[in-house]
From TrEMBL:
PANTHER family: STRESS RESPONSE PROTEIN NHAX (PTHR46268), UNIVERSAL STRESS PROTEIN UP12 (PTHR46268:SF6)
Origin: domain of life: Archaea
Organism: Natrinema versiforme
Every UspA domain range: 3-138
Pfam families linked to this entry: Usp (PF00582)
InterPro entries linked: Rossmann-like_a/b/a_fold, UspA
Record CDD domains: USP-like
Coiled coil spans: none
Family the UniProt entry places it in: Belongs to the universal stress protein A family.
UniProt-recorded name of the protein: Universal stress protein
High-level lineage: Archaea, Methanobacteriati, Methanobacteriota, Stenosarchaea group, Halobacteria
Length: 143
């Protein structure tokens, strides 16, 4: 089996673009094992004597509809698909999961951002590309 990690956010268009790339990878669909990963980003907010943490809101089983749509698409194409939901920094969780389950490749759909936008808000895609110890396929297609 050829194991592929596909990080999926809430944007359905980018999620479907990543799924399309997976279906275009060489080899029979039956030999592709796809792991869909959704990361609930960690945060903490405090004020007026109380604080709220992302831990308080995190539900391991609450996948966004984008994950279900991609799961259905890839299963219909004949691939084995599993889902995972993690909590924390998205780039760190993607890299840790890739190592933990020993995937052959990571397939991501990024979004176009200006250099200023990357500097101000960061880029999960860029962090994964720089930190990965295995091949990463990134598409910037708009669906």
């Amino acid at each position: 089996m050829y194991r592929i990690l596909v990080p999926i956010g809430e944007n359905e268009q980018r999620a479907q673009t990543a799924a399309d790339i997976v279906t275009e990878l060489p080899g029979p669909a039956a030999e592709k094992e796809v792991v869909l990963l959704n990361v609930f980003e960690g945060f903490e907010v405090s004020g007026e004597g109380r604080s709220i943490s992302s831990e308080d809101l995190y539900d391991k089983s609450a996948f966004p509809s984008s994950v279900t749509a991609v799961e259905d698409h890839l299963e219909a194409a004949g691939m084995s698909v599993t889902k995972r939901r993690e909590h924390g920094d998205p780039a760190d969780q993607i890299l840790a999961t890739a190592t933990e389950i020993d995937v052959e490749t990571i397939v991501m759909s990024g979004r176009k951002r200006s250099p200023t936008g990357k500097a101000l808000f960061g880029s999960v895609t860029q962090s994964v590309l720089l930190g990965a110890d295995r091949p990463v396929t990134v598409t910037m297609r708009e669906g």
